[in-house]
Amino acid sequence: MAEERLQKILSKSGYGARRKCESIILEKRVTVNNQLICELGAKADPDIDDIKVDGKNVSFEKIYYVMFNKPAGCLTTAAPDIHRGRSTVMDFFKDFPARIFPVGRLDYDTEGLLLLTNDGEFANRILHPKHKVFKTYEALIQSLPSNSQIEQLNNGILLDDGITAPAKIKTISGNKFIEYSKGKFRGALMEISIREGRKRQVRRMFRAIGYEVLYLKRVKIGKLKLGSLPVGTYKILTDKEAESATVELTDSSY
Predict the structure, then answer these.
(1) Are residue 115 and residue 80 in the same domain, yes or no?
(2) What is the rounded average pLDDT for all residues in the chain?
(3) Rounded to the nearest 10 degrees, how much is the dihedral formed by the CA atoms of 109, 111, 113, 118?
(4) Residue range 103-160, pLDDT digits in tens
(5) In the predicted model, is pLDDT for residue 43 greater than 50?
(6) In three state form, how does the secondary structure of 184-218 look?
(7) Are strands 213-221 and 135-141 parallel, antiparallel or unpaired?
(8) In a domain, 254, yes or no
(9) What's the average model confidence in pLDDT over 42-52?
(10) Cα separation, 130 vs 198, whole angstroms
(11) Which domain covers residue 24, as residue numbers?
(12) Domain tally, the chain
């Protein structure tokens, strides 16, 4: 295997997305052939060099891409909720054959499509705003918004942390009944696609035009659809299926 940047090697080995791996290097936790690496830019050959993190050998695992239908009332984190003892997505992967981590986050009360992997480069392609990968949600709100309100979301709306990037909105149903773990609700079911990942962003966007989100489910990332995968279960994706999640969609292709 040819030499690669050290952060890329760590990312491929399941230590997280590239930015996290860069932090591991800058924290002086990495050695190559017993030499401490303190700066970014260093390269190594995993087939030849002795690479360690916190004194432990870095090993290459089989790469996994997993699609999980996350239940509502479940934290998206790779660490246990030690303070409040709430369920996390990793509770569903206790016997999984490799160490995987969530790609981004899905809010506690939101259900639907969550990707997990041990490929940090793949995660970066999904998460970094420059790649313009849209995430699509179904949101149930009290009633149908007006065309002008929808246009505000389409163009970008001001939140307390800045203006959002343009979204893509369409109406699925003006009168939809939904029952799930958090209760029974009736309202207008909207589809909204965004390419950012701010905390509780979809809920905040609808609140900005005067609507509370009663139910929220992520149904698509890029061109990868959740489909009929049952809540609380997962599917190991093929490389081709995983690649569909990284597709950058444009106005003409969406």
Answers:
(1) yes
(2) 91
(3) 50
(4) 998 999 999 999 999 888 888 889 877 778 999 999 999 999 999 999 999 999 999 9
(5) yes
(6) EEEEEEEEEEECCCCCCHHHHHHHHCCCCEEEEEE
(7) antiparallel
(8) no
(9) 91
(10) 15
(11) 4-57
(12) 3
Active site residue 107: yes
CB 153 within 8 A of CB 140: no
pTM comes to 0.78
Instruction: Report CA-CA distances (Å) from 140 to 80, 111, 182, 205.
Output: 30, 13, 13, 13
Place of tokens 């992967």: 93
What is the spatial distance between Cα 141 and Cα 203, in angstroms, rounded to a whole number? Answer: 10
For the chain, counts of helices (H) and of strands (E): 6, 17
Q: Is residue 117 domain-resident?
A: yes
Tokens read off for 25: 């290097």
Residue from 91, 107, 119, 251 carrying the catalytic annotation: 107
Token pair for 52: 């360690």
Give me 203's structure tokens.
């809920």
Helix axes 147-155, 201-208, angle to 10 degrees: 140
d(Cα 189, Cα 68) in Å, to the nearest integer? Answer: 22
Average pLDDT over residues 161-182: 94
